[in-house]
Amino acid sequence: MIRTAHWLGYAGLIPFIGLTLGKELSPLTAVAFSTYSAIILSFLGGIHWGVALSKPQWSTPTRLCLCMLPSLLGWMALLLPMSGALTLLIGSYLIWWLWDRTQLDQPDYRRLRLQLTAVVVICHLIWLIQT
């Protein structure tokens, strides 16, 4: 995997960590955190969508529908009270990480996703505990 992907992945953690550390600064911080989280979750589904479109054996209606789940779950989370949103987002990140492990066999990508998902889930847990 190219180095740029690693740097961009780690840079994507900045809003999660920054908003978690600054959660008391503004009431809008919670909205910013959950919205950013839903967007990133949707992005993870888009990765599988791109793979499905590039590999004919993956381009099945079932797989393409599954690729839409992160977007729908992220959107649903935004409609819930904060504790419900955080719980749904944590579960979605963990389930999608498990799905990634069974579907994408690139060790470098798997390692990166594990690291990124761990930090994201920890940030969500901090929010959940303090909500």
TrEMBL record:
The keyword Transmembrane applies. Keywords: Membrane, Transmembrane, Transmembrane helix. It comes from the Bacteria. It holds the Pfam family DUF3429. The chain crosses the membrane at residues 6-22, 29-52, 72-99, 111-129. The keyword Membrane applies. This is DUF3429 domain-containing protein. It comes from Marinobacterium stanieri.
